[in-house]
Design brief:
This is Taste receptor type 2. InterPro entries: TAS2R. The chain crosses the membrane at residues 6-34, 46-66, 86-107, 127-150, 186-207, 228-248, 260-281. Belongs to the G-protein coupled receptor T2R family. The chain has nine helices and no strands. By secondary structure, it is an all-alpha fold.
């Protein structure tokens, strides 16, 4: 019981920090959009990613609270369908916007002489648009398959007032969910990892070249590339943790008595949409500057000191 309470506290902390971080990203970009009357492609992706991650966080917390406070009602067929479909939609957009961000940074920052890469580099907006269109097709296919599996399973046990998917040959239902969710999550995960590994290779090669030319001295350009490498590696670690926790959680759905495993996977998975928002803030100059201004304002408010003028 103590471990479950610990995971519950961690989940609440992740929810609060994730909502604040992603809400800050969306707010800053929206305010900047209103002021400038225009918004760049990367800010569009960041704003959409932040909003979708807020949806994921709220649905994850809602699902957790419903399962704890209303365990019987949460097992009904209609409730299972609503939870899975709602979570699938928000999680799908969250993953694919993150994938679009990976593609954008890869094409924008990486440096290869390959003709295909150069062709795509000059058409970043079209590449991102095509990627999102493909993701919409995959989302529709995912929802259709998910609804079909759940409807078939509900009809099979229509005589029961409550649909307990965990008590009726759970391995079949779990395998179906594992197949659909893993298949549709594996595609953007593979694209993201591939593009970022190529980006790491490009940055590492460029970093070695600059260090050689500077004879070991770190100039500002070298430091910027080192920070970019660190940001990319942190993203990969968080994304890999999320994907692995997702696989384990779905695979463990037939072993619901091992609730600690499921709770651990949930808290580990939420760390990606929650913690990555702060990685984005630190790595983006506009967001970082706005964050420092907010922190300075809060410091002045608490100390009852007026901030210095421009």
């Amino acid at each position: 019981k103590g471990a479950e309470n610990t995971f519950s506290v961690i989940l609440c902390v992740e929810f609060i920090t994730g909502s604040l971080g992603n809400g800050f990203i969306a707010l800053v970009n929206c305010v900047d959009w209103v002021k400038r009357r225009k918004i760049s492609l990367v800010d569009q992706i960041l704003t959409a990613l932040a909003l979708s991650r807020i949806g994921v966080l709220w649905l994850s917390l809602l699902n957790w609270w419903v399962s704890v406070l209303y365990p019987v009602q949460s097992r009904t067929g209609e409730m299972v369908k609503r939870i899975y479909v709602s979570w699938t939609i928000t999680n799908h957009f969250s993953i694919w916007f993150a994938t679009s961000l990976c593609i954008f940074y890869f094409l924008k920052i990486a440096n290869f002489s390959n003709s295909i890469f150069l062709y795509l580099k000059w058409r970043i907006e079209k590449v991102v648009s095509v990627t999102l269109l493909i993701s919409l097709f995959l989302l529709c296919l995912n929802i259709v398959l998910l609804n079909t599996y759940i409807d078939v399973w509900i009809d099979r046990y229509k005589g029961n007032r409550t649909f307990h998917y965990s008590s009726r040959n759970p391995s079949v239902f779990s395998t179906l969910l594992l197949f659909t969710n893993t298949m549709f999550t594996f595609i953007p995960f593979t694209v993201s990892v591939t593009t970022f590994l190529l980006l790491i290779f490009s940055l590492w090669k460029h970093l070695k070249k600059m260090q050689h030319n500077a004879r070991g001295l770190r100039d500002t350009s070298t430091t910027a590339h080192v920070k970019a490498l660190q940001t990319v590696i942190i993203f990969l670690l968080l994304y890999t943790t999320y994907f692995l926790s997702f696989l384990v959680q779905v695979w463990s759905s037939e072993f619901l008595e091992k609730s600690l495993i499921v709770s651990f996977c949930q808290t580990a998975g939420i760390a990606f949409p929650s913690g990555h928002s702060y990685v984005l803030i630190v790595g983006n100059s506009k967001l970082k500057k706005a964050c420092l201004l907010v922190l300075w304002w809060l410091r002045c408010r608490f100390k009852d000191v007026e901030p210095p003028g421009p």
